[in-house]
Amino acid sequence: NAGVTQTPKFQVLKTGQSMTLQCAQDMNHNSMYWYRQDPGMGLRLIYYSASEGTTDKGEVPNGYNVSRLNKREFSLRLESAAPSQTSVYFCASRTGYSGAEAFFGQGTRLTVV
Amino acid sequence: DAKTTQPNSMESNEEEPVHLPCNHSTISGTDYIHWYRQLPSQGPEYVIHGLTSNVNNRMASLAIAEDRKSSTLILHRATLRDAAVYYCILRDFNSGYALNFGKGTSLLVTP
After folding, report:
1. What is the pLDDT of residue A41?
2. Partner residue facing A98 (CB), from B87, B92, B100
3. What string of DSSP letters covers A70-97?
4. CB-based contact A104 B49, cutoff 8 Å
5. Which chain A residues have a beta carbon less than 8 Å from that of B41?
6. Chain A to chain B, count of Cβ pairs less than 8 Å apart?
7. pLDDT in tens, B33-45
8. Is the peptide bond before B17 cis (omega within 30 degrees of 0)?
9. Rounded mean pLDDT of B87-92?
10. I need a surface site. Which of A4, A5, A34, B40 has the fewest CB within 10 A?
């Protein structure tokens, strides 16, 4: 049971470099989400996709772009990485039903130097 | 979404029950109460959720006050594996938005 898979698990970038974080789910979920978690903090929503073909900004979208490639995949792109984007990034998915359980990936630990 | 208030940290002895409180005095009638936990170096995982009635599952029980302004997550016998940050989150029944995490309660379980 794969669930939500994130790649890569670790990444070090230099300031100004770009990269894409990949997320895929195999549960046929409609909704997918990207969060970031800074040390000692709770998770903050970056972007979400309520259904295939739609994306919306969350609490902290600046410096990021997303693509809902298909129902399974939701990618997060950093166009020009900054040290302030050093964080752990989590992808999540759920069916879309408001009471439904959300499933999270194991996270991508990103360091920008 | 309405806000929740949780203690920053709690401590429990292994094999004893743990009651994790959450206050949500501005809860609306269509808000579900969700609990998630995050083990060290892992993504959050679902624990339980409810709307009005108390709920039980294999992981925990959720006790919801009659006026719904507070709730309590109950771990019946804490194990060392239950040491985690526990998040109490409200989600509107009609909302398509994601879960909004606060700082949660850090639970320490001692042998």
Report:
1. 84
2. B92
3. SSSBEEEEESS--GGG-EEEEEEEE-S-
4. no
5. 107
6. 58
7. 999 999 998 999 9
8. no
9. 87
10. B40
Of all helices (H) and strands (E), which one includes residue B82?
A: none
**Closest chain B CA to residue A33:** B98
Q: Which residues in chain A have Cβ-Cβ distances shorter than 8 Å to B92?
A: 98
Measured between beta carbons, which residues in chain A are less than 8 angstroms from residue B100? 45, 59
pLDDT digits (tens, 9 = 90+) for A51-106: 899 999 988 999 999 999 899 999 999 999 999 999 999 999 988 766 678 999 99
The pLDDT score that the predictor gives to residue A99 is 65
In this complex, do B42 and A92 lie within 8 Å of one another by their Cβ atoms? no
* Count of beta carbons in the 10 Å neighbourhood of residue A9: 10
Residue B41, C-beta contacts closer than 8 angstroms, at least 6 positions apart: A107
